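Key idea: predict the complex, not the pieces.
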Amino acid sequence: GAGVSQSPSNKVTEKGKDVELRCDPISGHTALYWYRQRLGQGLEFLIYFQGNSAPDKSGLPSDRFSAERTGESVSTLTIQRTQQEDSAVYLCASSFRSPGTSGVGTDTQYFGPGTRLTVL
Amino acid sequence: ILNVEQSPQSLHVQEGDSTNFTCSFPSSNFYALHWYRWETAKSPEALFVMTLNGDEKKKGRISATLNTKEGYSYLYIKGSQPEDSATYLCAFGRGYNFNKFYFGSGTKLNVKP
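Result:
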């Protein structure tokens, strides 16, 4: 596709349930990021994938959060035993090269439309 | 914890007004600063990528400046239009091998017709 896509666009779930969010990056983009924005707050980095390298998981808020990416394609973010504080818009972004590749910090991140997660 | 601050949090202007807002970031070990526009129900869209102290970038009525020594960037909108209404985000990248951006919480701009 032409852009980054995410599914579902909206997800309402009950506290304690598991959810899985999906991101399809732009074809050829080696870097993929997950962020979230809770109400009234800025974008919060969660996890970063670069090709086949080990992901940077330093932003994951707890061990209930995990993410996978197969090669340079689809990524899924899984939240287990959801809590109300997990309610947020979850955004995925991809870029052609990661900022750490050859010192490139100029590659724009292309964002998906986000998944709005509401935990009741 | 690395703080990227944007001010003001929100701004209401009339159509035709010019406006500006600020992104402040740590001045040490700067590598790149990105500006994004995030319209309601859409994805954040890149506006500018800035890497050099003194950089000035322009896209139509929108321009940005960068001061890496003192750690701030300004975004200017000349002659605001209702379609400029959006949240404007800045994202700071630190160090040569950084792998993530630190985002500010954004400035929400509302332009009234």
